[in-house]
TrEMBL record:
Keywords: Membrane, Ribonucleoprotein, Ribosomal protein, Transmembrane, Transmembrane helix. One of its GO terms (cellular component) is ribosome. This is Ribosomal protein L7/L12. It comes from the Bacteria. The chain crosses the membrane at residues 6-24. Residues 102-121 are annotated as: Disordered. The keyword Transmembrane applies. It comes from Pseudarthrobacter niigatensis.
């Protein structure tokens, strides 16, 4: 008989504890979503849209906005993902921002190749190793005419589509052939 009389208060106590836990979680969730002001969120969304549009070529920009206009969000995200190589979440956010804040196409300024003198490249007292790989293919260039700054310029040229200029610069600062340099640069452009 005593067990039956305790069952009801125990059930009530469990219901109250469960209610308090659920209310606490709801309060915490609501509090964490208040972190950014709407004006800040809109400004960062506009900046994201501007930056995302700047990563696309004119054709990619036009195709992406055509897909957005047709309501094909998944296809637009896939196009952005393939064009930029960013992650899926970043691609989804970028396409969402571009849909919310349409951006005109702005031609990317051509990369200025610094004019180098015709003299022999500087030789450093150490050998610099540059490694590029894609899948199972790995290439290495080792030279005492390379350093972080020079290799950074070569990588920037490769990623901006100036692969021939990058390959030429790499052959100038190393002892590899133009063919080997092109193979190496092909691994960098992603």
């Amino acid at each position: 008989m005593k067990m039956e009389s305790l069952a009801v208060p125990v059930l009530i106590l469990l219901a109250v504890v469960t209610g308090v836990i659920l209310a606490y979680r709801a309060f915490r969730t609501r509090k964490s979503t208040r972190g950014t002001a709407p004006a800040q969120a809109a400004a960062s969304s506009q900046e994201l849209a501007r930056a995302a549009a700047g990563r696309l070529s004119e054709d990619q920009h036009r195709r992406l906005y055509a897909l957005i206009a047709q309501g094909q969000a998944m296809a637009a995200i896939k196009l952005y993902y393939e064009a930029t190589g960013e992650g899926l979440r970043a691609s989804r956010d970028a396409v969402g921002a571009m849909a919310a804040h349409p951006q005109p196409y702005r031609a990317q300024e051509p990369v200025q190749v610094p004019e180098e003198d015709d003299d022999e490249p500087e030789r450093f007292p150490y050998r610099y190793r540059a490694i590029a790989s894609k899948g199972d293919v790995t290439r290495e260039v080792s030279s005492n005419m390379l350093n972080d700054e020079i290799f950074g310029r070569i990588r920037t040229l490769a990623r901006s589509g100036e692969t021939e200029a990058a390959a030429t610069a790499l052959t100038r600062h190393s002892d590899i052939s133009l063919k080997q340099a092109r193979e190496f640069i092909a691994l960098l452009d992603d």
